[in-house]
Amino acid sequence: MDPRLLEILVCPLCKGPLEHRKAQAELVCRPCRLAYPVKDDIPVMLEAEARSLAEDAPELG
Questions:
Q1: Which UniProt keywords apply (predicted)?
Q2: 37: Cβ–Cβ under 8 A, 6 or more apart, which residues?
Q3: Residue 41: HSE in the Cβ half-sphere, 13 Å Cα cutoff
Q4: How many H helices and E strands in the chain?
Q5: Which of 19, 43, 47, 52 qualifies as a cystine partner to 28, CB 3.0-4.6 A?
Q6: How far apart are CA 25 and CA 11, in angstroms?
Q7: Is the pLDDT of residue 55 over 80?
Q8: What are the pLDDT digits (tens) for 8-24?
Q9: Is residue 32 within 8 Å of residue 13, measured between CB atoms?
Q10: Contacts (Cβ under 8 Å, ≥6 apart) of 6
Q11: Per residue in 21-31, pLDDT tens?
Q12: Contacts of 54 (CB under 8 A, 6+ apart)
């Protein structure tokens, strides 16, 4: 993913910063506890496509 794009992307729900997890191909919003997928280097910033991290609490630490 383009680093310049990562600098300007924010969570579509809370407008907070996102953490890029390259190995999982996702962008994570800690406050919303959502992981947005990155498909073919394109972030899919739709709430309906996001994975909930509520059950992954230790992973967020």
A1: Kinase, Transferase
A2: 25, 26, 43, 44, 49, 50, 51
A3: 5
A4: 2, 5
A5: 19
A6: 16
A7: no
A8: 999 999 999 999 999 99
A9: yes
A10: 18, 20, 27
A11: 999 999 999 99
A12: 33
Tokens of 46: 């739709």
**Taking the CB of residue 55, how many other CB atoms lie within 10 A of it?**
9
Supply 34's token pair: 């959502």
Residue type, 34: L
Distance in angstroms (rounded) separating the CA atoms of residues 32 and 13: 8
Pairwise CA distance, residues 52 & 47, whole Å? 10
Q: Residues for the chain: how many in total?
A: 61
Burial environment of residue 7 by CB neighbours within 10 A (0 to 12, 13 to 18, 19 or more): exposed
**For the chain, which residues make up each domain, given as ranges?**
3-56
Q: DSSP assignment, residue 4?
A: H
